[in-house]
Design brief:
Layout: E1 7-17, E2 20-31, E3 34-39, H1 46-53, E4 61-66, E5 69-70, H2 75-79, E6 82-85, H3 97-108, H4 112-125, H5 141-152, E7 159-163, H6 171-184, E8 190-195, H7 198-204, E9 207-212, E10 215-221, H8 222-228, E11 233-240, H9 246-252, E12 259-266, E13 269-275, H10 278-290, E14 295-300, H11 302-316
Parallel strand pairs: 3-8, 3-9, 6-7, 7-8
Antiparallel strand pairs: 1-2, 1-4, 4-5, 9-10, 11-13, 11-14, 12-13
Helix pairs in contact: 3-4, 4-5, 5-6, 7-11
Length: 317
């Protein structure tokens, strides 16, 4: 049996306020089980888009669709399988997560017989089980944000929409929320997450859509976006469990077909520049793994994404 493929789509989606165009004919379709970063500077149109996708505001023209269903004409059906955190609401400080989520579960129509179990499951998913019966007033902002994410998970959504979920958090809170977002990908979910933080998108997301002045500039996988706008070369940050010696760095890695250069970021992390397709990247990582030098992680380099981002934003102004 084939699992359902979930999708978010905008067709010529436009929002105009008087003489100001917040969003201009946005055409974007994302589908599958993955996390897509919606990247752009403040005021680019990200929140406007997400609010129209969840029917918090109506478009001036165009259509927003969830799983092929029009959000504005069939709101309940379209949003039935969607969880959102947009402009995070404050939780009454005198309530516990169990009490606050109980109220949300009632509003969402979660059957009474299932509420206790479901609340405990979502609190565990955001790693707040030990705080479930503590007063929210004593929580840090990051902890409150995790409870808001838990509220978005109560109906076990297949599509999750997050509007800059780490904004205003301290570094620890940001890291905790990012880890939770990454863990959400494990359940065949489609996650659409706006952000203006490049490192966050590079760390969490599989694909990126970049927007500025209400217009979509590019949408693709992170490696393809960086390759497309950097002369065909792609930059990877590669992590190792132990320091990489000079022979591996200076001789073995540069000898891998497709590798243009390799430099230290620090003793356990390298920046590798290569040319070619995703298949070439696969072969490079396979050869690095076969070297038995402690390869443990890789991701598109934030620096490469930053260069692409800044160039695209500059060109759109």
């Amino acid at each position: 049996m084939t699992e359902n493929v979930h999708s978010i789509e905008t067709v010529d989606l436009t929002k105009v306020y008087g003489s100001f165009t917040a969003l201009s004919h946005l055409n974007l379709k994302i589908e599958g089980a993955k996390c897509v970063g919606f990247l752009g500077p403040n005021g680019a149109g990200k929140t406007t888009t997400l609010k129209m996708l969840t029917d918090l505001i109506r478009p001036s023209s165009g259509t927003a669709l969830i799983d092929g269903i029009n959000v504005h004409t069939h709101k309940r059906q379209a949003l039935d399988s969607v969880g959102t955190v947009i402009e995070t609401p404050e939780i009454y400080p005198s309530l516990t997560p169990r009490e606050a989520l109980g109220m949300v579960a009632e509003l969402r129509g979660v059957p009474h017989s299932e509420r206790k179990k479901r609340i405990e499951e979502v609190v565990e998913e955001v790693r707040m089980s030990e705080w479930i019966d503590k007063r929210v007033g004593k929580f840090s902002k990051g902890m409150k944000q995790r409870i808001c994410i838990a509220s978005a998970l109560l109906n076990d959504p297949s599509v999750i929409i997050l509007d800059e979920p780490t904004t205003g958090l301290d570094p620890r809170g940001m890291s905790e929320v990012r880890d939770i977002v990454k863990s959400l990908k494990n359940k065949n979910r489609l996650i659409f997450m706006s952000s203006h933080i490049l490192s966050e998108v590079a760390d969490v997301c599989d694909e990126v859509a970049i927007i500025d002045h209400g217009k979509l500039l590019v949408y693709d996988t992170l490696p393809k976006v960086t390759a497309k706008f950097s002369g065909g070369e792609t930059v990877l940050e590669v992590g190792f469990s132990r320091p990489v010696d000079d022979v591996v760095l200076g001789t073995k890695i540069p000898a891998i077909p497709g590798v243009a250069s390799a430099q230290r970021k620090d003793e356990k992390n390298l920046v590798v520049v290569y040319s070619g397709t995703v298949a070439a990247q696969e072969q490079i990582l396979k050869q690095l793994a076969n070297m038995d030098v402690g390869l443990i992680s890789y991701r598109p380099a934030t620096s490469a994404l930053e260069e692409v981002y800044l160039n695209l934003i500059a060109d759109s102004r």
